[in-house]
Amino acid sequence: MKKIYLLFSLITINSISAQNIETINIPKGVVYNYVDNNLNDKAKQLIIKNLEKNKYSILEEHLIVGPELWKRFQKIEKLQKIKGNITFVVDDLKLSGKYSPTLNDTKLIWDEFKKEITGNYKIRKANEHELKYYWSVISFDIDEPLLIVETENHNYILNFLKSNLKLLWLDEAPKLEYHNPIDNKTYTSEGGFKSYRNGQEITSTPMGTKETALEKVVLLSSDLEFKENSSVEDVGLIIDQTKTIFEELFKNSDESGKIMIQFELKKDNNEIEFAVKDAIDMTIMKEFEKKINNTKFPNSKKDPIKLQLIFKVNSFND
């Protein structure tokens, strides 16, 4: 259950009905109220205009800086002098933010934000990852205009008061990164990496049962890349073939650990790599690799795509 407390009074944003709206994917449990496209377009134009030097029409006296952005901005000396500290309590985790009490202070924050918008950027609606993060921090329903200013290094969250199109909240979404121990690369994903268990997408990982089984499947390529280059049937076949070999060899193993298998499906020749964690029986592992490498798996239709299967041997879920 989400537990959030803001240590100050917050303006309540009333919802309105809207026509001609651009819909987005709303995560389960998030309350999100649309406004008319015209109002969102006005907010976009205000952002563009106020990124110019000495433009502040987007601002009013008060502004909230969310915890993810404040982690960086609190290191800026001129912003440290602003009074109005906030503590967000999210699932028992205390996070620091800032509440700007004066227009001059709000301008200082906006100036620092503008300094970071130096290259190409785009303004768009939020994706599911960004909505989940924002919802975890706030204590009110999400009302549009809620816009993302996306740059090469950061995705900033800007939430406006729809009554006057003044900026209420400024933050940034945490980066979604996944460090792959097989190729030692860090992958990033705008919408988040999708993990599956028993054919269902999972958003959290309970400890589960200590057992020898497939723990999860991680897709390292996008949904679009999988749709264009593979099929549900082919991915299912890869999983079933690998599970059969795994269960045959490891079902009676006394050791405990994890096995990661990465498939890079290509048009001609697939590449398969392995990684192990903890005390895997390496004699069995050698035979497992041999059988996997001798198995014919489906290829990609055109471009390479990657997925990982993570197995646990006498272990709990990570």
Number of E-state strands: 17
Overall pLDDT: 86
Give the strand content: 25-35%
List SSEs in N-to-C order: EHEHHEEHEHEEEEEEEEEHHEEHE
What proportion of the residues is helical, as a percent range? 25-40%
Our Rg estimate from Cα atoms comes to 24 Å
Largest sheet: spatial strand order: 3-4-2-9-8-7-5
How many structurally independent domains? 2
Give the terminus-to-terminus CA distance: 21 Å
Report low-confidence residues grouped into runs of 5 or more. 1-18
Which structural class is indicated by helix and strand composition?
alpha+beta
- Individual helix count: 8
Shape: elongated
How would a crystallographer describe the biggest sheet? Answer: 7 strands, mixed
Notes on the protein architecture:
The chain is an alpha+beta fold. The chain folds into two domains: 32-172, no CATH class; 177-315, no CATH class. The chain has helices at 37-50, 67-73, 77-80, 103-116, 128-137, 223-229, 232-250, 282-293; strands at residues 32-33, 63-65, 85-90, 93-100, 122-124, 142-143, 146-150, 155-161, 166-172, 177-180, 185-188, 194-197, 200-202, 211-219, 257-265, 271-278, 305-315. Helix 7 packs antiparallel against helix 8 (282-293). The relative contact order is 0.12. The model is unreliable at 1-18 (pLDDT under 50).
